[in-house]
Amino acid sequence: MDPGNWSTSITGGQSFQYTLMTTILISSLIAMLLQAMAAKLGIVSEMDLAQAIRARTGKALGVILWIMTELAIMATDIAEVIGAAIALNLLFHIPIIWAVMITVLDVMVLLLLTKIGFRKIEAIVACLILVILFVFLYEVILSNPNWGGVIAGLVPTPEAIAQHPVVNGISPLSGSLGIIGATVMPHNLYLHSAISQTRKIDHTDADDIKQTVRFTTWDSNIQLSLAFVVNSLLLIVGVAVFKSGAVSDTSFFGLYEALNNTSMLSNPILISVAKSGVLSTLFAVALLASGQNSTITGTLTGQVIMEGFIHLKMPLWARRLVTRLLSVVPVVLCVLMTAGETEIQQHQAINMLMENSQVFLAFALPFSMLPLLLMTNSKAEMGQFKNSWITQILGWISVIGLTFLNLYNLPSTFEGFGIWNKSLSDILAWITIILILLLLAWTTIDIIRGDRRLAANRVAHPWETTEE
């Protein structure tokens, strides 16, 4: 539940009303499917996703996939930097450039967390998400949204993946991909396959493994259902809290100001509460909470993929510091490059940087989805716990559908950067599409070959030996 979710969901609501509610629903269902697979892989194979991929692929592909996953973590980190810096600016009036630098100090928070144990970290994350939930539930209740429109928005329509209209620099398709990337984060599949192994399991007992898989799946689905509610509330806030078209600055700055500006709000109750400053302050507090929440998960994931892909161990604080410093660079450059422009232009530039970081997450997703699906479909690896035929069909629909939408949107994404003319943007987009398809084909072939190799030299699982 990071600031990237905020940006994609609130902006989607502001720009396209309730059209993207269906995207939030579908992306939450995909996340449930994939995290159940990730947990099952970790519990049954006793390897996390990074270790399982590395066991099947050559060193070169392993390094490439590691770099892609690291970039996905950095994309999430960019959203965290922007969200936390803006929250500090809004709450304490710290200049944005200094607020960005202060976010580097969250490594001290991480040092503290490493001392208190994993279960307590889980509790802290849960508390931070509840803060966000209650803040937006309160604001949505006050705004009295059109619930008929909300329910109608859950029904899939072609408008949710259309390339027009383009509002505030995004189309419904790019908005949908941003929501998918912010909801089904690729690096979280690596983390989930690792933390599922922290549960107490008797690996000699197939029934105990089955029960652990079932309970872990329920655990994951309950959490993702809560995330669906929060993401839906964010989009509803974008639609219902403000008068339609009233907010010209849809960045976090603009939304904060709008919550203080009674002329922009949609009903008398909101207006009376806004006069006290409570709405805007709660908004900034929840934004700060979401940044710290995703800081924890991003750092834990980084450790998993670094050890799994390239067998390199680094202290958590050092890893966090390196990742955060690298993520700060594009944010600082964005702030400095727009220093001479109007305030709204500066805010929109930062907002677009965050939007594009979430779209990149959707691009990185097939490179973790595809190996996860291939390995959990494998009889040799999973035995009786391999995916059912329904899960396999839904998995392939998710992988192929998301990959197609990403590639279909790529030319307009390149054009949206505004760096090259249309012809050059299209050429670069097609080169990128070919490279992505080749890399996916390479990944598929290596995983299948590696699976056959492991099957030929396979040692029976402890629970299989006990059954015999």
From TrEMBL:
Keywords: Membrane, Transmembrane, Transmembrane helix, Transport. It is found in: Membrane. The keyword Aminoacyl-tRNA synthetase does not apply. The keyword Transport applies. It comes from the Bacteria. It is a multi-pass membrane protein. GO terms for molecular function: cadmium ion transmembrane transporter activity; manganese ion transmembrane transporter activity. Signal peptide: none annotated. Pfam families: Nramp. Coiled coil: none annotated. The chain crosses the membrane at residues 20-39, 60-86, 92-114, 121-141, 173-191, 224-242, 269-289, 321-339, 359-377, 389-407, 427-448. GO terms for cellular component: plasma membrane. GO terms for biological process: iron ion transmembrane transport. This is Manganese transporter. It comes from Limosilactobacillus gastricus DSM 16045.
